[in-house]
Write a structure and sequence with these properties.
The structure holds 2 protein chains of 2 kinds. Chain A has 5 helices and no strands. Chain A is elongated and about 90 Å long. The N and C termini of chain A lie far apart (84 Å). Chain B is of the alpha/beta class. A 5-stranded mixed β-sheet of chain B has the order 5-4-3-6-7. In chain B, a hairpin with a 5-residue loop joins strand 6 and strand 7. The chains are: A mainly alpha, B alpha/beta. At the A-B interface, helix 2 and helix 3 of A face helix 4 of B.
Amino acid sequence: MAAEAPPAADDPALEKRVLDLAAELRCLVCQNQTLADSNADLALDLRRQIREQLKAGKSEKQVVEFLVDRYGDFVLYNPPLKASTLLLWFGPFLLLALGAWLLARRIRRQAAAPAPALSEAERVRAEKLLGGQ
Amino acid sequence: MNKRVLWVIGLFGALVLLLAAGLGLNPREVPSPLVGKPAPNFELPLLQEPDKTFSAKQELGKVWLLNVWASWCVACREEHETLVAYSKSGGAPLYGLNYKDQRAEGMRWLARYGNPYRASFYDADGRVGIDYGVYGVPETYVIDKRGVIRYKRIGPVTPELLEKTLVPLVRELERE
């Protein structure tokens, strides 16, 4: 199916608002793209919706609400910060902190362990290797 | 040493379980926020009788199914046989939302593959689809007597889904 030609930019300011908002929304067909980037039919339809609503005087917030009411939170490209997404947002930092703590613990334990005593032969060899004589 | 091995095995096992659970999910599925909300009203011309219209409100008081389909939709062919069989079994009325299609193509498709719909209506530019949160075709909605969407299926209706989920749900809603 051929895609319809994009409307002539008779109002570049409006088009900019449309694309700015579309860049924050997700294309539900090509789910890794924003509505601004995607050329899927649904993306074209939703950009048209955004354009019509902004032109009719709706605010960006109202347009987003319109879409979230129909498609859910997934239509937002950035997941909202809610109780259900706390782990999504902060999980990586928590894992990083956990990893750092485990590493720190290990290093401290190794530092506290006394160095093993060298035998006479080992001591001589070590000195030779270290360049002393 | 033993304790550490146990920890590693335990952690690995937990990750395997998470992976198994994740592989069973469909990452493309977008659950609808409309389940539990009133089905948006609309009025659209009938596919086969364009001078007549269908409005969602006219089904108030009845349990009905809304199936979103199109002649260009390959997956719709997968479920079509199941839907035709269902329509013959005397269940809840099945209506078709012909989504972003060409009227003539839609009618030709029904003539060729069978028509399970009590009526199909023509959503040329997909605006009613947007109101229903349609993002892929086919999709099927179950709507109750008060006009509330009670279930949405994303993807083809399989005989198993029909038997295990849709038919029991319709029966339950008809008792309300």
